[in-house]
Amino acid sequence: MNGVRSVRPRFYFSLRSPYSWLAWHDLLRDHWDLAEQLDWRPFFEPDSHSSALLAAAGGRFPYTPMSKAKSLYVLQDVKRLAAERGLSFRWPVDRNPIWEVPHLAYLVAARHGRGQDFITAAARARWHEGRNVCDPAVVASWGDELGIDGSELAGAADDPLMRAQGVQALLEIQRDGVFGVPFFTLRHQKFWGVDRLVAFTEAVKRRRESSVAPVPAGAERLGLRKDGSVDDGHAGGCG
Fold first, then answer.
1. CATH code, 10-211
2. What are phi and psi of 42, to 5 degrees?
3. C-beta of residue 77 within 8 angstroms of C-beta of residue 18
4. Where are the alpha helices (DSSP H) in 42-175?
5. Type and span of the H or E element at 10
6. Block means of pLDDT (10 residues each) for the chain, length 239 residues?
7. What is the pLDDT of residue 49?
8. What are the Cα distances from residue 46, in Å, to 52, 118, 164?
């Protein structure tokens, strides 16, 4: 919260966004090991209450509504991308949604160590069942499978503490220069869109490889392998 960029690579996602859903699907399908190491951060449009709190904190939300033409394009595009992945889905109808309901509930689940499981439940409900994930009753229904009190999840948007945490999440969106989702960050590097997931994962891999400490000169003569482990010449490593 002090303005220092996260050392861990981040994945900004929205439970509203079909492109976030597709990126989440690809990430777990192809890069499940990386998924466990990411800093997962929610991106959501604030309601009037959160907007007022955000403005009071000196922030603003970087989002503008889509045009009708873009909305129609997204309908076609998501159907095409989902078909490429062998996914069937039901397009949900959002009526006066309050996006704090599922996203602040996600923060509650993350606090309990069940953040990714919450996203799984929300994705299933929204994109496969066509349910309204902004309905507190729907969110509460995931409590049993997550092992979390459903009322705690459903009431997150009414909890002043969770509202404050939500505002901090919105401020981080602004600080990281996030303008849409899915959005990935690796320190100062930024990747926007489901089609940038591969580039992001490759960048993370390169950074890991470059962070491995080099083997000192002459180390192999001392029995130190190139990967940094020690081989003392005995089959069992003892002796």
1. 3.40.30.10
2. -80, 145
3. no
4. 48-56, 68-84, 100-111, 115-123, 136-140, 143-146, 150-154, 160-175
5. strand 10-13
6. 66 98 97 94 97 97 88 95 96 93 98 97 97 98 98 98 98 96 96 98 92 52 37 32
7. 97
8. 9, 20, 12
